[in-house]
Design a protein that fits this description.
Blueprint: E1 10-14, H1 18-29, E2 33-37, E3 51-52, H2 56-62, E4 65-68, H3 73-81, E5 93-96, H4 102-114, E6 118-124, E7 137-142, H5 144-149, H6 151-155, E8 160-163, H7 170-198, H8 203-230, H9 240-255, H10 262-276, H11 287-291
Parallel strand pairs: 1-2, 1-4, 2-3, 4-5, 5-6, 7-8
Antiparallel strand pairs: 6-7
This protein binds NADP nicotinamide-adenine-dinucleotide phosphate (NAP).
NADP nicotinamide-adenine-dinucleotide phosphate binds at residues 15-20, 38-40, 43, 69-72, 75, 78-79, 98-99, 124, 127-128.
Length: 295
Amino acid sequence: MRTAKKTIKKVSLIGLGQMGRKMARMYIDAGYEVTLWNRTLEKTREFEDVNITESAQDAIARSPFVIICVYDNSATLDILNNLADQGVLEGKTIVNLTTGGPDEALEIEKIVSAQKGNYINGAIQVAPDQMGKESTTILLSGNKKAYDEHRSTFDILGGNLKFLGEKAAASSAMDLATLTWLYGSYIGLIYGVSLGQKYGLDLEDYSRIIGEITPGFTEFFQYEIDVINRGDYSITQSPLPISIAATQRIADSFKELNVLREFPEAIKNILEQAGEKGLGNEELAAIIKVINKQV
Ligand SMILES: NC(=O)c1ccc[n+]([C@@H]2O[C@H](COP(=O)([O-])OP(=O)(O)OC[C@H]3O[C@@H](n4cnc5c(N)ncnc54)[C@H](OP(=O)(O)O)[C@@H]3O)[C@@H](O)[C@H]2O)c1
């Protein structure tokens, strides 16, 4: 009679910063055989019952599944380009969770694929303490076969994994897109605080009202993306002229206050151009034509 042999899953982690250390702990707790490499050896000292290697090369050699999470992709490229033998990448699934740009993702994919390795590019959208939760969002893209094969190992990292297809650059591009939205909103949020301070508003009221209107605006934003997807800009929700007037009003009110005016002027200018370029009878989402220089 043959007894089923329980195979211990192996994972190697390259980079033990805040995020790498957190992921190392998660895999140790999940019972994996964990191998670690960090440029500064001292950071490996807090870990017991793991394999510590002296080189990234050895860390890659020890596991089929390798996570790289370092400061930026210049560091990732440094590590991969300085391997003693890049042939070690053959057959390995290399998951790069370092935040970076889409072009960098393609460059790294090229190095890994040239050695017949499987590349998956990722972008973690939460802080280390929020890893491993049901709501933890991680954007991933690249080799789908490797993603499916190692799905249970990915699942340790979080419950809201978004696999965005075979184009390795997609996760970095999506990260940039969501961050663009986030910082635009964030700067708007703080300008709202500035206005509130100047007019003596209760900032707790502001905070509460923002919280209450956000779900409705999220629905509106999703509707507007759908308008662009369909390419039908007939007015159904928000006629562009209303926003031309609103952003003019916002810019005017900041003119009277002694604050940096770049942001309110920028949003006013985009809307104003849309009006000047004849989009006045279209849905607000038509500003994509101005931004993309299609008009
Ligand atoms: N922390 C977060 O909240 C968070 C959230 C989402 C995404 N991320 C992303 O996760 C990645 C890592 O973040 P982190 O917070 O862990 O950063 P961190 O604490 O600053 O750690 C950076 C890591 O990169 C290593 N490193 C830097 N340059 C290197 C090089 N040239 N060669 C080899 N290793 C190098 C460092 O090694 P040494 O120890 O030798 O310096 C260290 O292990 C970043 O891309 C970040 O954007 C972080």
